[in-house]
Write a structure and sequence with these properties.
Elements: H1 2-33, H2 47-66, H3 70-81, H4 87-92, E1 106-115, E2 118-127, H5 132-145, H6 155-159, H7 163-172, H8 181-191, E3 204-213, E4 220-222, E5 233-236, E6 244-253, E7 256-263, E8 266-272, E9 276-278
Antiparallel strand pairs: 1-2, 3-6, 3-9, 4-5, 6-7, 7-8
Length: about 280
């Protein structure tokens, strides 16, 4: 009797292992087949600062040439184009709401105007540009050449000693019909510390070079040279291998040289010159 009980117990133990071991192996295999989730914070890119960085260098180049304060140029671009996101900026690369034709090109769009204290919507022609930089160039030249009926219309803007004086001059010169225009421009300058760009930067040059990213490039693309304070990493240079690029700005600091480039007339960012292959002019 004792032997029968012992045999029965051994049988039950054997059955237990026969069932439990495959089940355990199945659970283990199922667990291992699932991807291991690692907690990872996605680094958010400050698109507003990237927009400022993309324009600040060229704004300083124009300041040296035309004496339009960079803080005013950038603040107007922010206000008029909604950080480059407006329909006018998207369709015509027009950052400043400049009306009329540019070299025979324009778009017709609705716009709000204030007349005799009342706001109304009208349809008007706006200048169409190939690039944001072309829009900035024309904006600076507008202040220099004035209008057909008043060549000195914007002279007070050029003579302003600081952004507050320049913003007031914009208002009194009739650049915009918004009665709060000067206050809005000054507020943007102060919020984003744009007056830090109000100086000539001899390390910056405007260039026009056809180029490509080297296949072996391991560098990153930045919102401005990575050696500058608060520069933002945008992507890897490998993202643009095989694409034609246009180098539009050059910055040299000691032995370090950086290029700002665009693709299909769209600004991309800054990259170390060692990642770039300049094509010879044909």
């Amino acid at each position: 009797m004792a032997r029968k009980k012992l045999k029965k117990r051994k049988l039950l133990i054997s059955l237990f292992f026969l069932v439990s071991i495959p089940l355990a192996l199945f659970v283990l295999a199922t667990t291992l087949s699932k991807p291991i989730e690692i907690s990872k914070e996605t680094e958010e890119i400050d698109e507003q600062q990237v927009f400022i960085d993309s324009l600040s260098g060229h704004a300083q180049i124009l300041y040296e040439k035309y004496h339009v304060l960079p803080s005013i140029t950038i603040a107007q671009a922010i206000l008029e184009s909604d950080w480059g996101n407006s329909e006018l900026a998207a369709k015509a690369n027009n950052l400043f709401g400049v009306k009329g034709n540019y070299k025979g090109h324009h778009v017709t769009m609705e716009t709000d105007e204030v007349e005799k204290g009342k706001r109304k919507t009208i349809r008007a022609k706006f200048r169409k540009y190939s690039t944001f930089f072309e829009s900035m160039d024309d904006h600076a030249q507008l202040f220099v050449r004035g209008t057909s009926w008043n060549k000195k219309k914007y002279k007070p803007v050029l003579e302003a000693g600081n952004y507050k004086e320049a913003a007031t001059a914009l208002q009194t010169s009739g650049y915009a019909t918004d009665p709060d225009y000067a206050d809005k421009i000054s507020a943007i300058v102060e919020k984003y510390d744009l007056d830090e760009y109000d100086e000539v930067n001899p390390s910056l040059k405007s260039v026009d070079l056809n180029a490509s990213i080297k296949d072996s490039a391991v560098q990153d693309v930045w919102s401005k040279p990575s050696t500058d304070d608060r520069s933002i990493r945008l992507t890897s240079a490998q993202s643009y291998v095989g694409k034609d690029i246009k180098v539009v700005s050059k910055k040299q600091k000691g032995q370090s040289v950086w290029y700002q480039f665009q693709i299909n007339d769209k600004l991309i960012g800054w990259i170390d010159d060692s990642a770039v292959e300049i094509k010879e002019a044909t």
